[in-house]
């Protein structure tokens, strides 16, 4: 029998000891950043008991097993409270897969290369903006803080580039299920586009798009079905200054014109029935310094979807469901044991009428991706949750390529309103209406999706 040199108690004591000293140093056996820089692999930074579900549960749960109501108590500490309750009482299930140790499989290839190449070159300036240390200009690409020292650095990296591509277009289907009946009450399809004019690592020109260096991103969302909302669309133009609200434009089909919306209007559903706000996007849907009081409140292992989430077997990548009275409430989801997450809380300091008092966000220490979020209402009670699945779009011999490498992105999201019992499911699909296709780093996205003229053109179809 193999002797356990570093058991769960050792890891827990390490995380708690660091917290007591006010230290954030990712990794248990050695600094995580050093392990990644040396080999691109996380294995040497963690004991075996944090690298497999078998090790963590002492064989009681194995790769390929399902987490359900019968065994969820064994992994309660690895779940945020909403997923735990959904598994315990609502029939939600999670299938265990192997822990990913190769960091090149946890983000787009060019993003990881830029992160390693530019490590140590970023800082926050006097206004709280991420800049290049050498010249004070906007960031030059990759994760600016791959070895984060505090909560704001984690959020700064997340806000800098949501999808980690220079440009992304996601064909999306959305469903909202009423928990009590199990019926799908709302069903939408459309597209989401985002483009970074700075910190570019794959698209020319790099790292900046001349004439747009004062912008952080262009982002739009539009809807095609149902017919009632066809053509409804929104465009966000983000200033690079992280204290400035984005310009928010919307196309309203019945008025056949683009209008500007209040810039702080970010805590309302995009369309009726969706439990998803603009503020929720990637758990960092608002400029960095419109939130504040960032603080690390915990560290430890977690269950999250970081691999095997692409449904290559379906021609449009659509996912199967389960749970609830009619088996339509939750996605069939694969999760792995994440050896270490960093839990950060933040408060909406520039939103006097915000319906939330704070958000609590779980970041994967391996790649700093958000793997879970819970928001709390003004009374401090859990309000809404947001959990998603990412993956490399590679399954056996099947691959969806992003240039020279397999595409990496999100696959599906579950957004739950805990207080109303409503669950919205979003999935990234191959295409919608044979006209809009998921893609990355295509410069044509700007004219097609990210201008006011584009909104009017989409709304007229």
Automatic annotation (TrEMBL):
Gene3D superfamilies: Lipoprotein localisation LolA/LolB/LppX (2.50.20.10). It comes from the Bacteria. This is DUF1329 domain-containing protein.
